[in-house]
């Protein structure tokens, strides 16, 4: 049993024509919770449910929290999400629509997370947004689906926040014997904790994360994500917030699909960093999705960001 669905793999004619390459889009935006997070979170929730968990707790006001809430609803297991006061009304509404108990606490994520941690007991499972081997194993399933479709790309492009998606995709690619296929890891300038870590060849914590790509806003990447850079080729690229927004709007024009700037970062990387993909004829982009941004907000950002 899985809680995620098998997503379409789309040959993007508009992107292929612009880039002069074959571009494949893995449409994780179509997961029922709106992002790839459901793969890993679903696997983690099923595993904890098997071990007897009677409640799930999350401290994510973004796509991870929505995925945990979705899984709880499907498994009929209560979910509590603790989020800081800065969480948008839209995110609160999405969590409540999924039936989660939402507790708004503290000025920062750290305060909300501390309360969430204090709620744990032997029957309660905490679901981390990116740093857990159960998540990576769940995310890896997206690579299996691409391989089963008969596609073997020359490069895989994805967005990086805490590096859970990266770790899972690398795990899946390892299983498929794709360790020689480079991963292009996209971040925005204000969230480039993996870029700084790869430069330093060690996990680097940013003093602060900035910008609109809030789903990428981990101050430090998971150790596992940095460890993969010693086992396989990973190229790090950065884009601006504006480039991420424009790429998200371009996807809407090309394929009628709305995603967050966090996802736009991977799409922008392909258009703005051709050198990272010079050797690749076939490119796979993980269209990771995101439920928090709206069309009105993307258009407002496009008008105001420079
Ligand atoms: C969580 C998320 C990311 C980043 O994933 P990590 O596993 O934290 O690197 C990127 N895009 C979207 C839409 C997300 O929800």
TrEMBL record:
Cofactor(s) in the UniProt record: pyridoxal 5'-phosphate
Q: Mention one GO molecular function.
A: pyridoxal phosphate binding
Q: Which controlled-vocabulary keywords does the entry list?
A: Lyase, Pyridoxal phosphate
Catalytic activity, EC: 4.3.1.17
Enzyme class at the top of the EC tree: lyase
Q: A single GO BP annotation from the record?
A: isoleucine biosynthetic process
Q: Name one Pfam family in it.
A: PALP
Domain (Tryptophan synthase beta chain-like PALP) spans 4-289
Catalytic activity, as annotated = L-serine = pyruvate + NH4(+)
Name the family the entry cites. Answer: Belongs to the serine/threonine dehydratase family.
This protein is called what?
L-serine ammonia-lyase
């Amino acid at each position: 049993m899985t809680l995620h669905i098998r997503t379409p793999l789309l040959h993007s004619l508009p992107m292929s024509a612009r880039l002069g390459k074959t571009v494949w889009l893995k449409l994780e935006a179509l997961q029922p919770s709106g992002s790839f997070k459901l793969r890993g979170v679903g696997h983690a929730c099923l595993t904890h449910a098997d071990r007897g968990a009677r409640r799930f707790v999350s401290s994510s006001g973004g796509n991870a929290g929505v995925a945990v809430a979705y899984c709880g609803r499907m498994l009929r297991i209560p979910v509590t999400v603790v989020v800081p006061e800065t969480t948008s009304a839209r995110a609160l509404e999405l969590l409540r629509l999924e039936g989660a108990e939402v507790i708004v606490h503290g000025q920062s994520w750290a305060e909300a997370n501390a309360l969430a941690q204090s709620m744990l007991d032997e029957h309660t499972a905490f679901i981390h947004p990116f740093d857990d081997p159960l998540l990576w194993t769940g995310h890896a399933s997206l690579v299996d689906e691409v391989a089963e479709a008969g596609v073997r790309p020359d490069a895989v492009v994805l967005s990086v926040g805490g590096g859970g998606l990266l770790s899972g995709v690398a795990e899946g690619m390892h299983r498929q014997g794709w360790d020689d296929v480079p991963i292009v890891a996209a971040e925005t300038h204000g969230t480039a904790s993996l870029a700084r870590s790869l430069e330093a060849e060690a996990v680097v914590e940013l003093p602060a994360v900035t910008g609109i790509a809030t789903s990428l806003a981990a101050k430090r990447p998971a150790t596992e994500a940095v460890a993969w850079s010693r086992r396989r080729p990973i190229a790090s690229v950065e884009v601006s917030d504006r480039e991420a927004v424009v790429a998200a709007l371009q996807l809407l024009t090309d394929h009628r699909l709305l995603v967050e700037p966090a996802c736009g970062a991977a799409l922008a990387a392909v258009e703005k960093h051709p050198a990272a993909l010079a050797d690749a004829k076939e490119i796979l982009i993980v269209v990771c999705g995101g439920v928090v941004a709206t069309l009105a907000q993307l258009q407002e950002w496009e008008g105001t960001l420079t």
